[in-house]
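Before anything else, study the sequence and fold tokens given here and see whether the fold suits the sequence. Record follows:
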Amino acid sequence: MSRETKSEAGRRGFLRKGAGLGSAMLGAALGTNARAEPLQVAPWSKTPGEPALWHPYGQPSIFEKDVVRRSRGAAAMPGANSSMTPLQNLYGIITPSGLVFERHHAGIPQIDPQQHRLAVHGLVARPTIFTMDDLVRLPSVSRIHFLECSGNTGREWKGPGTASLQLSHGLLSCCEWTGVPLATVLEEVGIQPEGAWILAEGADSAAMSRSIPLSKALDDALLVYAQNGERLRPEHGYPLRLFLPGFEGNMSVKWLRRLKIGSAPFMTREETSKYTDSLPDGTARQFTFLMETKSVITFPAPDFRLKEKGFYEISGLAWTGRGRIKRVDVSIDGGRSWSVAQLQEPVLDRALTRFCLPWHWDGAATVLQSRAIDETGFVQPQARQLVDARGFESNYHFNAIQSWKVATDGVVTNVQV
């Protein structure tokens, strides 16, 4: 039996085991649309199509025009805004560049790469200014990782925050990132013994700045100039950004112009008054860099409605800043019982992992949930566990189990149980 045949046989067995469906029952469960009918010759099969260079830069089908980033609305400050990835419309784990979420503090600068410079100074032996040509000449690597804003799902702290998966979880994307290991540049300039932190500063008018532990910079940080096989887009940091795998998104500073090495954190605005986790006793957690283990069911989700009873494949995404996802459990009864979902390959380090579970919906109201476990044994918590530990004052790092209620009419809504 060939590899493809074995794979197909395994999938059929998985469907039968999980959904309780034989091959004959599966066709009936899919509804009348799955029944064999004479194949008609459609109008688009009768005439030549558009020429090859209809769009010199490829565009999605006109029938996918609604698969776009969306925003909750303009922020108070000029140029400060965010737009969310339509997770409910995506397949696999890679986010197309045109759908990667955006978060800006002062709009999107249009930077000439020939004029852009990266200064590396502070506690170094050889302060240096790099051009983009200098950086691109250095040995590069490409890695697939997720990027998540620490404010993603922050509106869920006090209960169901939005009626859309895209608007609740869409500050999340996963891409192939290409660039130079930051350690290569730091070796070139020579870090002095007392160096322990790095200030990363962007070239936008907000001068977005964050303190980066030197240990992270030397471990796996990248100076990125390409994303998903092409140069960065302006909204993603063109021509150069910092990328810190597994860390909260705002630390991967876009439009990177300066790295200053120091002996202590630089206590910028974005790590004092912002991006800290308020606690009930009036104190705040600071430098909570890691994005914890998390998952969400992307279908069924509030952006869809189930049209009829029968077979569906529950599908979703899991991720963790701690490494790889080890297991995802799915509940179809509001957490009373759990089934182990299938993890689809590839399962990568600090990347989105897609999971799926066959499900036969009998038309009754129910609640769907997913619970991720990473390779360190960390288990995605329930909302009440986070609230018990941190109260209601935080806006960041909410990684609780997400619940979707399926009503008898097939409408899916955001709930907490």
